[in-house]
Amino acid sequence: MSGGGVSGETPSWPSLYDPGLELLHITNRDPVQPGGSYLTHASDIFLFTLYWTLIFYTPIFLFCGLYAFFNLTFPPTRRPHTLPRLGREASDDAAYPLTSLRPYSPRDTTAPLLLRPPKPKPNQGRSRTTFALLVLLAFLSLSLLGALISSAIVGFILAGVYKLAKFNLSTWIPFVWAMLSVTVGLLSVWPTVIDII
């Protein structure tokens, strides 16, 4: 593992090293530690952040997508609700008596509009599995898009801040920020996904 901050060369991914080099006994030591790996180019910082974000982000969306896929493919069975009858005065039959409906005749202008044949539904031939696959693909594509946007924002902001302050960016920084951005993303998505599923 070469020191990317000293020579300007890009370390291989993931290039994680002992974090104690940066955190323990740092008084009167150089900012670039022997045995540490550092990133200098903005594109490298973006790529490291993208890789970590994909590692943390995609499995969570894959799990949610598979859950939605199986829930749509094999829906839970609906059991009829049987309520105990409390007596004649509490039943719906007494409050709303049933009336017979007349069959629809094209010559009868007084026939209700509800008896006309319903219009065919769009995509009526589409199977439940096809729809579930579309939902799974939507989850996977949104996870890739979300990881790409999140890592672009975080990676280039990190590159700008560290270059402006003339700090050396350790390879641990994209790892930590990818975990933070995925956690924040999950906190904002959780109620919406639960309502949809």
From TrEMBL:
Keyword Transmembrane annotated: yes
GO cellular component: membrane
Segments passing through the bilayer: 45-70, 131-159, 171-194
Localization terms from the record: Membrane
InterPro entries listed in its UniProt record: TMEM170A/B/YPR153W-like (IPR019334)
Keywords, comma-separated and alphabetical: Membrane, Transmembrane, Transmembrane helix
Membrane topology: Multi-pass membrane protein
Keyword presence, Membrane: yes
Stated family: Belongs to the TMEM170 family.
Name listed for the protein in its UniProt record: Uncharacterized protein
